[in-house]
Amino acid sequence: MVALGRGQLPEIVKVVDTNGTLRYASPAFGRILGYDPWEAVGTMYALELTGYPPEDLLVGGKVKLGGLIVEEDRGRVWDEVQETLDGGRGFELRYAIRRRDGRIRHVHEHGRGVCG
């Protein structure tokens, strides 16, 4: 496997803390979303993606993130994430969400469960 240096990754890499605040955004964040990654760090980018403030999306919040996934994708996304978490692998998903304003936003997500 070829290791890519920082700044060469073709996909967005981000670190979001438990408050929903963006703590790191790779250069692809800017290329793909049009935001300067250094300016985005410290912001609550969840609002831009979903139309909801981060506190509404946290556990116990007003909105369940899974509920934003369009119905035709919801079951598949759940199943794929559970399968990869059970196997200790990462996942790559493509699905659509319905924003607060009703618009559809397409998501390409890579993830890995971190247990600690």
How do the helices and strands line up, and which of them pair or pack?
Elements: E1 14-16, E2 22-25, H1 27-33, H2 37-40, H3 46-50, H4 54-57, H5 65-68, H6 71-86, E3 91-98, E4 104-111
Antiparallel strand pairs: 1-2, 3-4
For the structure shown, list the relevant keywords:
single chain; 116 residues; alpha+beta; 2 domains; two-stranded antiparallel sheet; two-stranded antiparallel ribbon; 4 strands; globular
Oligomer: single chain
- For the CA atoms, what is the radius of gyration? 15 Å
Shape: globular
Compute the number of strand runs.
4
Give the termini separation.
27 Å
The major β-sheet equals: 2 strands, antiparallel
Helix content: 25-40%
Helix-strand topology string: EEHHHHHHEE
- What is the number of independent domains? 2
Unreliable stretches:
none
- Report strand order across the widest sheet: 1-2
